[in-house]
Batch of 2 targets.
Target 1
Amino acid sequence: MLDLIWLVPALPLAGFLVNLLFGRLLGEPKSGIVAALAVAGSFAVTAGIFFDLLSRSEHDRSHVDVLFSWMPVGSLKVDLAFLADPLSITMALFVTGIGALIHLYAIGYMHGDPKFSKFFLYLNLFVFSMLMLVLGENLLVTFLGWEGVGTCSYFLISFWHTRESAATAGKKAFVTNRVGDWGVMMAMFLAFGAAGTLSYSGINHAAEEGIISGVTATAIGLMLFIGAAGKSAQLPLYIWLPDAMEGPTPVSALIHAATMVTAGVFLMTRVNPVLEVAYDWAPTLIAIVGVATALFAATIAVAQTDIKKVLAYSTVSQLGFMFLAVGSGAYVAAIFHMVTHAFFKALLFLGSGSVIHGMHHEQDMRKMGALRALMPVTAITFIVGWLAIAGVPPFAGFWSKDEILLFAFAKSPVLYVAGMAAALLTAYYMTRQVIMVFFGEARWNDHSEENGAHGDFKPHESPIVMLIPLVVLAGLSMVGGAMQLPFSKDLHFLEKWLHPVVEFGEADIKGTWAYDNKYVLLGIAIVVALAGIALSVAVYAKKKIAAVEPVLLANGWHYDSTISRFMGGPGRKAFDAVAWADRTIVDGAVNGVGRVVQSAGGTLRRGQTGAVRNYAAFIGVAVVALLVWFFLRGVVL
């Protein structure tokens, strides 16, 4: 099966080409079925590769498939090659698996859209790009996929581009990600300069053998972190992700759960040996940015009223937990939370899409309520996702988040406290969302005319094609934690699977207070989650405590608006000044040299008369001048 790894990205690419050439002819729903089958086939191949690797010994679980030599230039040799190892196959499994479920869901969600086939064309291209990113054997192949998902995110977020907000959101995502891309390019330049290769195996081996110095490793790690902060929406580059909600809900689920936003965490885990040999303050900085992002986004989520905006800020917060894990040396925990997050966040986004579909495209939670009776499957599955993200055992999110906090405590109790505060807020705002949408009084009757129903408005359950993915993801959100339970080393299945990849960089916390008292921390995590839920119930269900939703938080601490004002004011003037300097000074110097050469050429051209006698006279004068020079030189010597 390992020799068939090229099929994993090839099948979504084939689906893209089929829809590109015949999408309009196929129409609805055939174009969507073709796209879904392409990704499902990719998942089947990935599963076969997984079992092939699983049957091998731990240190034989790495296979490189070289398609061709892509860029042989001097000492730089880059192959278009795919790497199948535990990390890349873990990523490919949930990218294709959850991607297939989202494609299936989208067939029902996008029903009746005039650009139905184009939507699935973009989805297939997006999945292809993400698979190139995670399967790339070297940084340049990864960067090809990295740019691909950035471009596809622009297409998908601004899919309904006739809405100005959607068009703006797409451009915002594209431009913000370009800032992060600069960091990845700088890291590639530094890595090639230090290790002479862009291959992950070569770079990591150079780090392990001490060929890359601490200074260079720190620079490479931080440059990659800049790229990761852009793609995975960390402070200060998170601003594109909440606006990405302007795209159709399947896009939100695909981008926010299993694909694009996880790319940064994957990249940092892939180069964990580089971070290990970097200066100690570099991973600490990553952990601080991660936990700050987790707490910052959680405070904003508590005051949002758009059902998808709550989940968007939740995604930013959960990604912060993953970077807290990376900075704490808990790479297994980071991937563990990435996988469980893919389960429950895809479930929550698709569940929110089901609610929006049943509410005739209404997204304001203040106009919902009491939907559990009218949308029972959506309600039950959404509640499973809520319990998972809130950190209630035995649901998947509890186990992964607890492992991150365990390593965070071992690194610094301050990081742990900040992470626990973010966890408390997560349980609080997610409970708030569930109560406002599915419980309490039915408020949609009060807004029937606003929803275009003219008095006969009634929410309804979604079609079966949209409910099947919800049920599957709910099941995964319940049992997903079983891959890495804390009670015994025999239950650390994910750790054993990823061990060859993270062996060098994974932190050893044995003997620390946190490790020796991990069950105490486990109990604290349960109490904190239940406290957040209880507080939210008291505020929004029992009405015993007044809700605190300040405008400051609803507006995201005015962070986004401040950046917009700066970019439109002083920033615009600064950019205009740079453009003037480029146009006047840089281009002026180049153009000035050109004009001097042109003028000198024009002057010399006057001597080119075409008359032979003139040329003969010039030659005679030159010969005489040379004779005089030689004569004078001989006299002097």
Target 2
Amino acid sequence: MTDIEIAQQCKIKNIEEICQKVGLTRDDYDFYGKYKAKLNVNQILNSPERKNGKLVLVTAITPTPAGEGKTTTTIGLADGLNLLGKNAVVALREPSLGPVFGVKGGAAGGGYAQVVPMEDINLHFTGDFHAIGAANNLLAAMIDNHIHQGNELNIDTKRITWKRCVDMNDRQLRFVTDGLGGKANGTPRDDGFDITVASEVMAVLCLASDLADLKARLGRIVIGYNTSGEPVTCAQLKANGAMTVLLKDAIRPNLCQTLEGTPAFIHGGPFANIAHGCNSVIATKLALKLSDYCITEAGFGADLGAEKFLDIKCRVAGLKPDAVVIVATIRALKMHGGVEKTELAQENLTALEKGVSNLLKHIDNIKNVYGMPCVVAVNKFHADTQNEVDLLIKLCEQNGTKAILADGWAKGGKGMTDLASEVVALCEEKSTLSFAYPIDAPIYDKIEMLVKRVYGGVGIEVSDNAKEQINKLEELGYTNIPICVAKTQYSLSDNPKLLGAPKGFTVSVKNVKLSAGAGFIVVLTGDVMTMPGLPKKPAAESIDVLPDGTVVGLF
């Protein structure tokens, strides 16, 4: 059966039962239909009687077209912990419509390790992304209106950095010229769209601690520069109040469930290759207050999502994982070892051993850069041979790290209890979180330290444009904040063709921009795009709805 067929056969519990499972009273939530709830969090988060549970971060190797299954593993692990008698919940990001209708698919897990209702979660869900897009585009409209109405702030129309956004893969909108048609229709200028998950409003919502902090962060957003070269903020345009109104419900975390009835907090959805790639701080903190084990995931490999989770989110929110799970598949490791996708079903120990270099680099990052205890989850595929499984476990053990076979896709929580037991043991180990770079280091040094320590490169090549941007940001005093590197997810380098654990490479820094509301500096490398395009055969071509309302073709 397909993922959606498995999900549609599940007998979903009423969301009230899931709310009661985590100790929520009727005043703590509002129904959003029968199977979803919006949570009221302030009273819970500020309750000194509620102690935090253990935080487990799930990351992965560098992704390949063969698939890794990080979200599936995250969900299955939470189910497995509950089967062991632990009080566990899962905290995930919301999927973007762009990948759903494009090529990657959704973010609701797979097989028998899914969150439900998966159709809702993968599509409009509770409307959070629409609210984020509306807030983003309200600011864009107010910028151009301000210019049209006399431009009191002297905004330089050639130095506006704020883009419009839409939650869809639409390459046609990357670069546009708008305001055409005469004076009554605005001021002509070069413009463009980002996908909603790359909007700074998404990052702001996911890093805000409460509604007041959300409004303050929105106010600090820099939309561009005036004719004197000074930054112009959202607060100067008096837009942050109305934007906060649009986001007042979107900032409230959503509660759903897994196929096995494990509570699932699903909130926020920044991409990890072009943003910071983690669910909201509010949802994570709430999940910790309501469980003994909170299992969360960060997008793509440990060089992207996990790096940003640790260097950005943990710094901002004062969080520290108690254990880290690194997801790998034998299929993907063989691709890193040079095997074509069409040949992955054949046993190839040589390629597997070569490709393990990628996994070992991610292990090194977690253990030796960040100081976190970790375990490898070998996400099982039917074509994996026993020889390949034994070799992978052996190579990990030689590196001082345990690898455990995980079969959540086929067996749900029952296939994850061995991994769950190891995670419980890891959570009892003492650890001290370190960061990849000191927060007070110059911007240039932060980028270089990240490239050398986490990516395994030898240095950076900075364009003249990026040098000018870095100098300007340091001149303006934006130094003591984290960096958020936007780069390809398909390689530890900025070149998607360099698989495994490449050596001797440099990373090209093309542009640097300030996300003052989010509280970090975005560093754009290689050819990474903040607005993806659709593939030759989009997934949307196969998605449909039957006369009775049943969705089909959604994975």
